[in-house]
Amino acid sequence: MMTDYLKAKAMANETLTKYVDRSPLSILESIDGVRVMSFQEMSDITNVQRDRLIGMFGNGDIDAITTVYVCGKKLRYAVAYDKTKSQEEKDFALARELGHIILEHDGSKPEEVRNEEAVCFAHHLLNERI
Question: pTM of this prediction?
Answer without folding.
Answer: 0.89
